[in-house]
Amino acid sequence: MTKLTRAPGAPTHTFLDFPLALDLDKLEADIAILGIPYGLPYRVDEMANDQSRAPDLLRQSSHMSDYTRNHFDWDLGGPLLDNRDIRVVDCGNVTAVSGDHQEHYRRAEAAARKILDAGATLITLGGDHGIPIPVFRALEGRGPIHLIHIDAHLDWRNDVNGVTEGYSSPIRRASEMAWFDRIVQIGIRGIGSAREGEVADARAYGADIVTAYELYDIGMEAVLDRIPEGASYYLTVDADGLDPTIMPAVMAQTPGGVTWHQMRKLIHGLVKKGRVLGMDIVEIAPMHDVGNITMIHAERMICNFIGATIRAGYYDRA
């Protein structure tokens, strides 16, 4: 697969009106945005869940593109692209096959590999939390990679209803991939799908589990100090890891999540440690949004990631 197409009837917007680049065999980009709308369903009726609408609705909500791209951004200390010749493209969405759910993951992995092979930093828009699994596979050969995980839930289930690559299993699947090293899980709280056995497995692996309450007590800078420097990283962000006061559009709202200031500090601190190969934002359920506040914070998160990587010198050319 070399080309991607939008789902029928989807908006024609790209993220912040960045150029559309569908031919991944000829990709020339520093940063590439890819929509992966569909995870593997646990039930027949889950394929087209509400999270599958999030990639295009997030693009559609980023309607003040000239303002966002060219005005002074106080989060970054200047315009988004820092007045540099940075090539940011939107690669559209990975398409699905209704009769073969695994084909969607195969296409997603192939697309992610082509983007990474082109030397671009990958930003993935989900979709539920199963969709990072094919991206994790595409990172093969780029390790060791430290996985930084923001979530209310542990996501170490081996399977649900016999499905081993759904939204409750991405961190266990990552732990089985030899190119992943340290796993840091931030914002864990409340009641999720994990049983005592999954918690024991995560701890046996050596996962550094930072509950939302420990984070509140010690601060994000202390958490950053626990992440080794000079390495490669991947950041996966489940929207329910953030506090529902800033990201209410999730299926499992849980009080006490990561705050906006903590999230911004993590992004800016992480990109300075080494090379963040990519990030994703998943599990946004648009039907539960309030005043578009979730989309606003998701866009700000992506903009902070783009701007921070630029200022960290990721794309400096001789």
Walkthrough of the structure:
With 318 residues, the chain is an alpha/beta fold. It is built from 10 helices and 8 strands. It has helices at 54-61, 65-70, 101-117, 132-138, 170-175, 196-205, 212-218, 220-225, 260-273, 293-311, and strands at 31-36, 88-93, 121-126, 145-150, 180-188, 208-211, 232-238, 275-282. Strands 2-1-3-8-7-4-5-6 form an 8-stranded parallel beta sheet, with helices on both faces. Strand 5, helix 6 and strand 6 form a beta-alpha-beta unit. Helix 3 packs across helix 4.
| Low-pLDDT stretches | 6-11
Q: Which superfamily, in CATH terms, is the homologous superfamily?
A: Ureohydrolase domain
Q: In which range does the helix fraction lie?
A: 25-40%
> Which CATH architecture?
3-Layer(aba) Sandwich
Helix and strand sequence: EHHEHEHEHEHEHHEHEH
Side-by-side strand order of the widest sheet? 2-1-3-8-7-4-5-6
Give the structural class.
alpha/beta
Name the shape in a single word. Answer: globular
What is the number of domains? 1
Strand content: 15-25%
How many β strands by DSSP?
A: 8
Q: What is the averaged pLDDT score?
A: 93
Provide a count of the helices. 10
Q: The CATH topology, please?
A: Arginase, Chain A
* Spatial separation of the terminal alpha carbons: 33 Å
CATH hierarchy, class: Alpha Beta
